[in-house]
Amino acid sequence: MSLPHLLDSPQPRAQLHPLSVAAYHALGELGLIPEKTELLRGFVFNKMPKSPIHRSLLLRLLELIQAAMARAPYWVQSEQPITIGNSEPEPDISVIAGRRDDFWDRHPATAEFAIEIAVTSHDLDRRKAAIYAEAGVKEFWIILVPERQIEIHRRPEGGEYSSVTVVGAEGVAVCAPLPAIQINVAALFQR
Fold first, then answer.
1. What is the pLDDT of residues 142-170, one digit of tens each?
2. Is this model's pTM higher than 0.85 or not?
3. Is 101 left (phi over 0), alpha (psi -120 to 50) or beta?
4. For residues 172 and 187, what is the distance between their CA atoms, to the nearest angstrom?
5. Which of 8, 70, 78, 134 has an alpha carbon 20 to 30 Å from 60's alpha carbon atom?
6. 48-189 — its CATH code?
7. Which helix or strand (DSSP H or E) is residue 143 part of?
8. Which of 120, 73, 68, 66 is nearest to 93 (CA)?
């Protein structure tokens, strides 16, 4: 039985011992957990290496979003933790209410807006949607790289998003809670 099928079975899954966020931090500080990981539902996941297209899109989006938020009471972070219950995902981009110094001794517990860039990680990123919804992240986008689309998750309710739409190559994605953020999909993918 392969490991993914083993974890799908309730009996072996019940024998696993998930980590708390505090244990994850302590083990990380001791060097017992690799740096390029994130904690999801109490389990440590290795982060995938960044492809050139992922890096290019991340930098392009980061520049556009930082410019849109330049005078707003928010700050933009890239690949930094958000502590959500027994999870600590690191969205590719998140927009956080407040000032950076408000989080000197703790990670943010939510975000106004978060983005994951999915080159090959569609399934994992869609599973993260529930974690972001539980934290009250008002809007979550998945940049679907092979499809050249943006999947928009809105209205977090009961641990999931009640609205999911897709903006195609000819559209403009607008962040509902932060309308200054507008991404022309064709321009985003233009070389």
1. 999 999 999 999 999 999 999 999 999 99
2. yes
3. alpha
4. 9
5. 134
6. 3.90.1570.10
7. strand 139-144
8. 66
